[in-house]
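Hey, quick one: can you model this chain's 3D structure?
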Amino acid sequence: MEDDLAVVEVVVAGKINCQKLSSIIIMYSKSKLSNGATVITVPVKGTEAATVLTLFPVGSRYEKEKQSGLSHFIEHMMFKGTLKRPSTLDISQELDKVGAEYNAYTSRDYTGYYVKASFEHLDLSLDLLSDMLWGSQFKEEELEKEKGVIVEELNMYKDNPTMYAEQLFEETLYANHPLGRDVGGLEKTVRQMTRKEMVGYYESFYQPQNMILVVAGRIDSHLKSKVIKFFGSNHHKSSKPIFKIYKQPEKTPVRLKSFYKKTDQAHLALGFPSFSYDNSKNPALAILNVVLGGTMSSRLFVEVREKRGLAYMINSGLNRYYETGNLVVRAGLDKNRVAEAAEIILNEFEKIKEKGVTKEELSMAKENLAGRMVLALEDSSAQAEWYGKQALLMKKIRTPLEEIKRLRAVTLKEVQAVAKEVFQNKFLRVAAIGPYATAGDLAEALKIK
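Sure thing. Here's the predicted structure for all 449 residues.
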């Protein structure tokens, strides 16, 4: 296992304290095992914990329509028993008895599994993750039981209007494209899944050469031998990693989508297409998002909630994928005043396009992003996720310090240019949950033509 060592000097970045920055990361190393797996080690000072994270480039976007939800289903089945640990209880008890944190997640682009435990139990973390990934049995009886669990998970998210409104927004934004499907699938597709289909899909994507393995936290000189022991075998045979990139979804005129539900609030999600993971305009877009709706002092929060009392919850956020992305505004609104709120939101888009942001807003947004990054990355699991996603999704790994430097370099003109590029009314998409039987009803309520 040959190391490609990257050493980063700690420098002062704006107002963030130099000593504080040194706790983010001084060094990481990237290597490859003989089976093609990528290994990243991230030593974190002052911690007795270690996080082991594995990421695979497989998510809902790689599924055929009839397979919708399969990537997420496999994530569930990884916890349902191996040859070494035959049941879910065997897996969970072994981790629970050492106080470990463990979970998994599926997105449109990737699937991740992690265990965070004290350093003295690092062997267990590596052993258990390796066993789950390469030894899961996908038992027929467990698969059938888990179908009901996943359907209830889908129902739970559907009963959360804030989350479901954003799903409807992406369905509208990426109509007739895999990115528009719910990561969890549909009840129909989940109920129809077979073990044969699941195992075939699993064997196609879960290859060592597709895997990013990150160990972050307390690390010693024995880590290499441990990683080789637990992850160094050729578990399956495959000629090459599988990355499937789709063409950019078409940008069509304004579309609206409604979901009728008797609620006290109208739950709104509206926004625009934006940029992919590795786009050079992302730092400017991140600053734009903070100014628009990323904090409790942002423009939308002040105008919609503080000045007019139209909402309890209103914010904006960014979603990024391999070749595209989006900026979305989410709000839970007084259902009798949605038109007023929509007008304010749309006006804020226009104001930023026409006048940009102020020097004070630019400075605040830069400090906000840098500060949040420092706070988040104090945890070994956050360190693991940062470097894992960088390795999986970016052309080049950027350290947190390098990312802060990119943010510091953003100018007022760049933020306004990004606003003009993103906030184009002809590409606006809107989704809402509330008393709207049709998209026409929603358009009338919002007074959007």
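One thing worth noting: The mean pLDDT is 90.
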